[in-house]
Amino acid sequence: MRQLLQNKFFETGMLIFIIFVAAILRLYQIGTVPPSPDWDEVALGYNAYSILLTGRDEYGEIMPFVLQSFDDYKPALYTYLIIPFLPFFDLSVFSIRLPSAIFGILTVLATYFLVKVLFQNRGLALLTAFLLAISPWHIQFSRVAFETNVGLAFNVFGALFFLKGLKKPWYLLGAALFFGLNVSVYQSDRIFTPLLLLTLICIFWRQLFSLPKKFLFLFVVIGMITVVPLVYALATNSNALARLK
Question: Under a CB-based contact definition with an 8 Å cutoff, are residues 148 and 141 in contact?
Protein backbone atom coordinates (compact mmCIF):
# COMPACT_ATOMS: atom_id res chain seq x y z
CA MET A 1 0.00 0.00 0.00
CA ARG A 2 2.84 2.39 0.82
CA GLN A 3 4.34 1.81 -2.62
CA LEU A 4 0.95 2.46 -4.24
CA LEU A 5 0.60 5.76 -2.38
CA GLN A 6 3.99 6.80 -3.67
CA ASN A 7 2.64 6.38 -7.19
CA LYS A 8 1.33 9.73 -8.39
CA PHE A 9 -1.07 8.13 -10.87
CA PHE A 10 -2.65 6.05 -8.10
CA GLU A 11 -2.84 9.07 -5.82
CA THR A 12 -4.46 11.20 -8.54
CA GLY A 13 -6.88 8.42 -9.42
CA MET A 14 -7.94 7.99 -5.81
CA LEU A 15 -8.41 11.73 -5.41
CA ILE A 16 -10.56 11.91 -8.55
CA PHE A 17 -12.66 9.00 -7.24
CA ILE A 18 -13.13 10.74 -3.87
CA ILE A 19 -14.19 14.00 -5.54
CA PHE A 20 -16.59 12.04 -7.77
CA VAL A 21 -18.18 10.42 -4.71
CA ALA A 22 -18.41 13.81 -2.99
CA ALA A 23 -20.05 15.33 -6.07
CA ILE A 24 -22.66 12.57 -6.42
CA LEU A 25 -23.60 12.73 -2.74
CA ARG A 26 -23.97 16.53 -2.87
CA LEU A 27 -25.53 17.09 -6.29
CA TYR A 28 -27.91 14.15 -6.88
CA GLN A 29 -31.51 15.44 -6.74
CA ILE A 30 -30.33 18.51 -4.85
CA GLY A 31 -33.41 20.45 -5.99
CA THR A 32 -35.83 18.01 -4.36
CA VAL A 33 -33.87 16.45 -1.47
CA PRO A 34 -34.41 17.92 1.12
CA PRO A 35 -37.99 18.27 -0.17
CA SER A 36 -38.65 21.93 0.63
CA PRO A 37 -36.57 25.12 0.84
CA ASP A 38 -36.42 26.68 4.29
CA TRP A 39 -37.15 30.37 4.83
CA ASP A 40 -33.48 31.38 4.75
CA GLU A 41 -33.07 29.69 1.36
CA VAL A 42 -36.15 31.51 0.06
CA ALA A 43 -34.81 34.85 1.32
CA LEU A 44 -31.36 34.30 -0.18
CA GLY A 45 -32.81 33.26 -3.54
CA TYR A 46 -35.40 36.03 -3.74
CA ASN A 47 -32.83 38.71 -2.91
CA ALA A 48 -30.41 37.26 -5.47
CA TYR A 49 -33.17 37.40 -8.11
CA SER A 50 -34.08 40.97 -7.13
CA ILE A 51 -30.44 42.14 -7.29
CA LEU A 52 -29.98 40.45 -10.67
CA LEU A 53 -33.00 42.23 -12.15
CA THR A 54 -32.84 45.61 -10.43
CA GLY A 55 -29.48 45.93 -8.63
CA ARG A 56 -31.44 46.25 -5.37
CA ASP A 57 -32.55 43.83 -2.66
CA GLU A 58 -36.18 43.34 -1.60
CA TYR A 59 -36.04 46.53 0.51
CA GLY A 60 -34.62 48.65 -2.31
CA GLU A 61 -31.04 48.79 -1.02
CA ILE A 62 -28.49 49.09 -3.82
CA MET A 63 -26.03 46.17 -3.94
CA PRO A 64 -26.11 45.62 -0.16
CA PHE A 65 -23.34 43.96 1.83
CA VAL A 66 -25.85 43.04 4.52
CA LEU A 67 -29.40 41.83 3.81
CA GLN A 68 -32.16 43.01 6.12
CA SER A 69 -34.17 39.91 5.15
CA PHE A 70 -36.33 38.85 8.12
CA ASP A 71 -34.68 41.54 10.27
CA ASP A 72 -31.86 39.08 10.96
CA TYR A 73 -29.47 41.05 8.71
CA LYS A 74 -27.75 38.24 6.85
CA PRO A 75 -24.25 38.70 5.37
CA ALA A 76 -24.89 39.06 1.65
CA LEU A 77 -22.05 37.16 -0.02
CA TYR A 78 -23.96 33.89 -0.46
CA THR A 79 -26.71 35.81 -2.28
CA TYR A 80 -24.16 37.11 -4.79
CA LEU A 81 -22.88 33.55 -5.30
CA ILE A 82 -26.37 32.51 -6.40
CA ILE A 83 -26.70 35.23 -9.06
CA PRO A 84 -24.45 33.65 -11.77
CA PHE A 85 -26.62 30.51 -11.79
CA LEU A 86 -29.99 32.26 -12.14
CA PRO A 87 -29.74 32.93 -15.92
CA PHE A 88 -29.12 29.21 -16.49
CA PHE A 89 -31.42 27.56 -13.93
CA ASP A 90 -33.89 30.40 -13.21
CA LEU A 91 -35.04 31.10 -9.65
CA SER A 92 -35.23 27.54 -8.36
CA VAL A 93 -34.29 25.46 -5.34
CA PHE A 94 -31.53 23.91 -7.45
CA SER A 95 -29.91 27.27 -8.31
CA ILE A 96 -30.16 28.46 -4.68
CA ARG A 97 -28.50 25.33 -3.27
CA LEU A 98 -25.90 24.89 -6.02
CA PRO A 99 -23.24 27.28 -4.56
CA SER A 100 -23.31 25.39 -1.26
CA ALA A 101 -22.94 22.04 -3.04
CA ILE A 102 -20.04 23.31 -5.17
CA PHE A 103 -18.19 24.69 -2.17
CA GLY A 104 -18.89 21.46 -0.29
CA ILE A 105 -17.13 19.52 -3.07
CA LEU A 106 -14.27 22.03 -3.15
CA THR A 107 -13.87 21.68 0.62
CA VAL A 108 -13.21 17.96 0.20
CA LEU A 109 -10.49 18.79 -2.35
CA ALA A 110 -8.99 21.56 -0.20
CA THR A 111 -8.99 19.31 2.87
CA TYR A 112 -6.88 16.77 0.99
CA PHE A 113 -4.23 19.40 0.20
CA LEU A 114 -4.41 20.95 3.69
CA VAL A 115 -3.77 17.63 5.42
CA LYS A 116 -1.01 16.86 2.92
CA VAL A 117 0.70 20.18 3.71
CA LEU A 118 0.32 19.71 7.47
CA PHE A 119 1.45 16.09 7.79
CA GLN A 120 3.30 15.33 4.52
CA ASN A 121 1.34 12.07 4.37
CA ARG A 122 -0.53 11.20 1.16
CA GLY A 123 -2.41 8.27 2.70
CA LEU A 124 -3.69 10.36 5.59
CA ALA A 125 -4.68 13.16 3.19
CA LEU A 126 -6.68 10.76 1.00
CA LEU A 127 -8.34 9.14 4.02
CA THR A 128 -9.31 12.50 5.50
CA ALA A 129 -10.76 13.72 2.20
CA PHE A 130 -12.73 10.48 1.79
CA LEU A 131 -14.15 10.66 5.30
CA LEU A 132 -15.26 14.24 4.69
CA ALA A 133 -16.74 13.24 1.33
CA ILE A 134 -19.04 10.68 3.00
CA SER A 135 -19.62 12.60 6.24
CA PRO A 136 -23.41 12.83 6.84
CA TRP A 137 -22.87 16.16 8.62
CA HIS A 138 -21.03 17.71 5.70
CA ILE A 139 -23.37 16.22 3.09
CA GLN A 140 -26.36 17.70 4.92
CA PHE A 141 -24.87 21.19 5.03
CA SER A 142 -23.74 20.96 1.40
CA ARG A 143 -27.21 20.06 0.11
CA VAL A 144 -28.92 23.13 1.59
CA ALA A 145 -28.13 26.82 1.09
CA PHE A 146 -26.29 27.13 4.41
CA GLU A 147 -23.92 30.09 4.38
CA THR A 148 -21.88 28.37 7.07
CA ASN A 149 -20.92 25.67 4.56
CA VAL A 150 -19.31 28.29 2.33
CA GLY A 151 -17.70 29.80 5.43
CA LEU A 152 -16.12 26.45 6.23
CA ALA A 153 -14.76 26.22 2.67
CA PHE A 154 -13.25 29.70 2.90
CA ASN A 155 -11.61 28.87 6.24
CA VAL A 156 -10.08 25.67 4.84
CA PHE A 157 -8.86 27.42 1.68
CA GLY A 158 -7.58 30.35 3.75
CA ALA A 159 -5.58 28.05 6.05
CA LEU A 160 -4.26 26.06 3.08
CA PHE A 161 -3.11 29.16 1.19
CA PHE A 162 -1.58 30.63 4.36
CA LEU A 163 0.51 27.51 5.02
CA LYS A 164 1.58 27.22 1.39
CA GLY A 165 2.41 30.93 1.46
CA LEU A 166 5.10 30.32 4.07
CA LYS A 167 7.14 28.70 1.27
CA LYS A 168 5.66 30.40 -1.79
CA PRO A 169 4.68 33.89 -0.60
CA TRP A 170 2.28 34.70 -3.42
CA TYR A 171 -0.14 32.15 -1.93
CA LEU A 172 -0.61 34.60 0.94
CA LEU A 173 -2.61 36.83 -1.40
CA GLY A 174 -5.16 34.04 -1.79
CA ALA A 175 -5.25 33.52 1.97
CA ALA A 176 -5.97 37.23 2.51
CA LEU A 177 -8.79 37.08 -0.05
CA PHE A 178 -10.48 34.04 1.50
CA PHE A 179 -10.09 35.20 5.09
CA GLY A 180 -11.20 38.74 4.23
CA LEU A 181 -14.29 37.66 2.28
CA ASN A 182 -15.29 35.13 4.90
CA VAL A 183 -16.52 37.77 7.33
CA SER A 184 -19.19 38.53 4.71
CA VAL A 185 -20.35 34.91 4.48
CA TYR A 186 -21.77 33.98 7.88
CA GLN A 187 -22.30 35.60 11.27
CA SER A 188 -20.11 33.18 13.26
CA ASP A 189 -17.16 33.61 10.91
CA ARG A 190 -16.92 37.27 11.92
CA ILE A 191 -15.52 35.91 15.18
CA PHE A 192 -14.04 32.55 14.19
CA THR A 193 -12.09 33.57 11.09
CA PRO A 194 -10.09 36.40 12.74
CA LEU A 195 -9.28 34.04 15.62
CA LEU A 196 -8.16 31.36 13.16
CA LEU A 197 -5.94 33.84 11.33
CA LEU A 198 -4.51 35.17 14.60
CA THR A 199 -3.74 31.60 15.71
CA LEU A 200 -1.92 30.84 12.45
CA ILE A 201 0.11 34.05 12.76
CA CYS A 202 1.06 33.25 16.38
CA ILE A 203 2.17 29.72 15.49
CA PHE A 204 4.08 30.57 12.31
CA TRP A 205 5.19 34.13 13.02
CA ARG A 206 8.89 33.37 12.51
CA GLN A 207 8.36 31.98 9.00
CA LEU A 208 5.76 34.62 8.18
CA PHE A 209 7.83 37.66 9.09
CA SER A 210 10.92 36.30 7.37
CA LEU A 211 9.10 36.54 4.02
CA PRO A 212 9.65 39.48 1.63
CA LYS A 213 7.90 42.55 3.05
CA LYS A 214 6.04 43.30 -0.17
CA PHE A 215 4.01 40.10 0.20
CA LEU A 216 3.18 40.90 3.81
CA PHE A 217 2.12 44.38 2.72
CA LEU A 218 -0.11 42.98 -0.03
CA PHE A 219 -1.49 40.41 2.43
CA VAL A 220 -2.64 43.22 4.73
CA VAL A 221 -3.91 45.44 1.90
CA ILE A 222 -6.01 42.73 0.25
CA GLY A 223 -7.44 41.71 3.61
CA MET A 224 -8.41 45.30 4.39
CA ILE A 225 -9.94 45.90 0.96
CA THR A 226 -12.18 42.83 1.29
CA VAL A 227 -13.24 43.74 4.84
CA VAL A 228 -13.81 47.51 4.46
CA PRO A 229 -17.20 47.31 2.64
CA LEU A 230 -18.67 45.14 5.40
CA VAL A 231 -17.20 47.35 8.13
CA TYR A 232 -18.80 50.36 6.45
CA ALA A 233 -22.15 48.57 6.19
CA LEU A 234 -22.05 47.61 9.87
CA ALA A 235 -20.94 51.08 10.95
CA THR A 236 -23.79 52.79 9.10
CA ASN A 237 -26.50 50.37 10.20
CA SER A 238 -26.61 49.55 13.89
CA ASN A 239 -29.32 46.93 13.34
CA ALA A 240 -26.85 44.87 11.31
CA LEU A 241 -24.89 44.17 14.51
CA ALA A 242 -27.86 42.80 16.43
CA ARG A 243 -27.17 39.13 15.60
CA LEU A 244 -23.44 39.51 16.31
CA LYS A 245 -24.16 41.10 19.69
Answer: yes
- For 95, phi then psi, to 5°, come to -65, -30
56 sits in the region (left: phi over 0; alpha: psi -120 to 50; else beta) called beta
DSSP string, 133-170: HT-HHHHHHHTTT-HHHHHHHHHHHHHHHHHHHTTSTT
**Whole-angstrom distance, CA of residue 228 vs CA of residue 9:** 44
Rounded CA separation 154/114 (Å): 12
Q: Cis (ω within 30 of 0) for the bond into 169?
A: no
pTM of the predicted protein model: 0.92
SS3 32: coil
pLDDT single digits (tens) 106-157: 999 999 999 999 999 999 999 999 999 999 999 999 999 999 999 999 999 9
Confidence band for 97, pLDDT divided at 50, 70 and 90: very high
